[in-house]
Amino acid sequence: MIPAAGLGTRFLPATKAMPKEMLPVVDKPAIQYVVEEAVSAGIDDILVIIGRNKNALANHFDRVTELEHTLEAKGDASKLERVMHSSSLADIHFVRQGDPRGLGHAVLRAKKHVGNETFAVLLGDDLIDDRDPLLTKMIDESTERAATVIALMEVEPDQIHMYGAAAVEPTDDPDVVRVTGLVEKPAAADAPSNLAIIGRYVLRPEIFDVLEETPPGKGDEIQLTDALQVLAADEQIAGGVYGVVFRGRRYDTGDRLDYIKSVLLLALDRDDLGPDLAAWLKPLAAGLP
């Protein structure tokens, strides 16, 4: 499940008429990276929670026969393959969120689609490098421990106030911790650790019952973190909450500066773009004050 109902106000006016999830990251929209990550982890059924004016998302993953025929007639097999790739990734469904009442409410909108199954939630602002798989590890841990699993990442202590922070206990795996509590955007002095929650979750279906009883919190929104706190405090509900500590490459496209950095980093890693881009950037960087 991918929540994509946000207004993208940080990127106005670019997002006035275009969903933020469709902002290009090199030559693919950000949401396609997220869908491809899910597919790589073995997921072939994807629900996208959208808001008004998000039809471009559905259009991107649909067939465009006129464009396909044009590229085929031109003999441009490479572009044709890339165009058709996005429309054959998975079974992709769309549900409107209605009132924008927070991430917890968006997850609740998936209840009828998910049913009584464990499911993954992938936030579109976080792109995980496909060379550093995360979701597969999370799914394996959830299956083995019969528990909810969230993704954690070490951040500098002075940055923890930008994230939810996890109180944790070690397990037999150095990359897996048991989550005993969660604090939303704490001051550095109050943070239980420097392990920040990033935008990947593997949730058991019991989360729906908890969310339905979760009152609105900050911003009058239903917070997923509040529901996870309930699960972390009582392992009897759904096996508790565990965290997979991610130590790989992550690109944040939810902030303007980080978005620009993400585009540059991913382009530099490309064989077709990296060498020329690096050659252009080096003298440019050398001349900066």
From TrEMBL:
Top-level enzyme category: transferase
EC code(s) of this entry: 2.7.7.9
Pfam family, one: NTP_transferase
UniProt GO MF annotations: nucleotidyltransferase activity
Alphabetically ordered keywords of this record: Nucleotidyltransferase, Transferase
Catalysed reactions, as listed in the record: alpha-D-glucose 1-phosphate + UTP + H(+) = UDP-alpha-D-glucose + diphosphate
Domain Nucleotidyl transferase: 2-261
InterPro entries, per database record: GalU_uridylyltTrfase_bac/arc, NTP_transferase_dom, Nucleotide-diphossugar_trans
Entry-linked CDD domains: UGPase_prokaryotic
NCBIfam families, alphabetized: galU (TIGR01099)
Similarity section: Belongs to the UDPGP type 2 family.
Protein's name according to its UniProt entry: UTP--glucose-1-phosphate uridylyltransferase
Organism: Agromyces salentinus
